[in-house]
């Protein structure tokens, strides 16, 4: 009888250990469904501002027309704040052009907002093309019209902010990244599958 009791206790202890190990391996589920995509090239993704509304301040199209991010309501948009004087900005721009080619369309678009000076607008447009990203929608927010930059909470360049079709922030990434990487494409695909 004692031998059976020891075997029973051993099995209970073994079951408890297995339960604890599986619980620890699973960990706490992420509070945001997209947090699991913050790996590899997307490791710097931040979800701290998720749910906040896109800023309403103006930026300017290449022809000087004032535009707000409301123009993209109804589609998922990746807004990239960059400058020609910023080498990490230029380093990531080809991958943004590749992502626009791969996923751009009715549901998703990349918008580049240059923070260069007004007099450098033509050069910024030229550089966008030279960097393989002429397929990205160009806009400018020069220093005298930085409200959209401030209202977005951008603290350095480059910064990419992703907004859903409802105009609410999904995630942001400060610094450069390879937006053509498998991690980035999987992240964008997951967003499009969930929010459209």
TrEMBL record:
PANTHER family: CHROMOSOME UNDETERMINED SCAFFOLD_47, WHOLE GENOME SHOTGUN SEQUENCE, THIOL:DISULFIDE INTERCHANGE PROTEIN DSBE. Coiled coil: none annotated. SUPFAM superfamilies: Thioredoxin-like (SSF52833). GO terms for molecular function: oxidoreductase activity. This is Thioredoxin domain-containing protein. The lineage of its organism: Bacteria, Pseudomonadati, Pseudomonadota, Alphaproteobacteria, Hyphomonadales. It comes from the Bacteria. Residues 48-193 form the Thioredoxin domain. It holds the Pfam family Redoxin.
């Amino acid at each position: 009888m004692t031998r059976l009791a020891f075997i029973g206790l051993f099995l209970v202890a073994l079951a408890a250990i297995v339960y604890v190990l599986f619980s620890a391996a699973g960990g706490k589920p992420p509070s945001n469904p997209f947090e699991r995509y913050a790996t590899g090239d997307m490791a710097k993704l931040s979800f701290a501002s998720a749910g906040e509304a896109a800023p309403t301040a103006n930026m300017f199209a290449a022809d000087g027309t004032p535009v707000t991010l409301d123009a993209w309501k109804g589609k998922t948009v990746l807004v990239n704040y960059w400058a020609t004087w910023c080498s990490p900005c230029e380093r990531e721009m080809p991958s943004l052009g590749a992502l626009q080619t791969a996923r751009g369309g009715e549901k998703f678009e990349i918008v580049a907002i240059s923070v260069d000076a007004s007099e450098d607008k033509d050069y910024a447009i030229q550089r966008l093309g030279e960097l393989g990203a002429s397929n990205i929608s160009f806009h400018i927010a020069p220093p005298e019209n930085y409200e959209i930059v401030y209202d977005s909470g951008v603290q350095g360049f480059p910064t990419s902010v992703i907004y859903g079709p409802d105009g609410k922030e999904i995630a942001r990434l400060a610094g450069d990244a390879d937006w053509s990487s498998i991690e980035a494409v999987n992240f964008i695909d997951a967003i499009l599958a969930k929010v459209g």
